[in-house]
Amino acid sequence: MDSKRQQKMASLLQQELAAVLQRDLPHLFGGGLAPSISMVKVTPDLGQARVYLSLLLGNDANERLEIIKDNAKEIRHALAKRIRKTARVVPELIFFHDDSAAYAAHMDQVLGTLHIPEAPKEDSSDDDKPARPRLFNNE
HAMAP family, from UniProt (predicted)? Predict the structure, then answer.
């Protein structure tokens, strides 16, 4: 379980990294959409941050992730400029591809193709209901 310090730092990093990728460094993506940051996990010593990126659009997710990993130093420097008054140390950024949204879409498609028959309808007459069990002798 993360401490409050870790949670605050993770939240700050997620917001500021999104701003860095969208506003400060859009040239990294060649005019395309910047990836969205789905989650940030920070180590207890705040030295490393694991950044999970959602690379939904396009089939070149691995190439885009490699571009981001290659430019991690530049991203960290731009992040440092944004959070220099808030954080004492800017953690090392480690980027991962988060494909949970694509997996959820795939599972939705699979579940949509299943043929599930409707449950048989039961009559709601009071005569068929079993008698209420007696809890005490004097009922």
Answer: RbfA
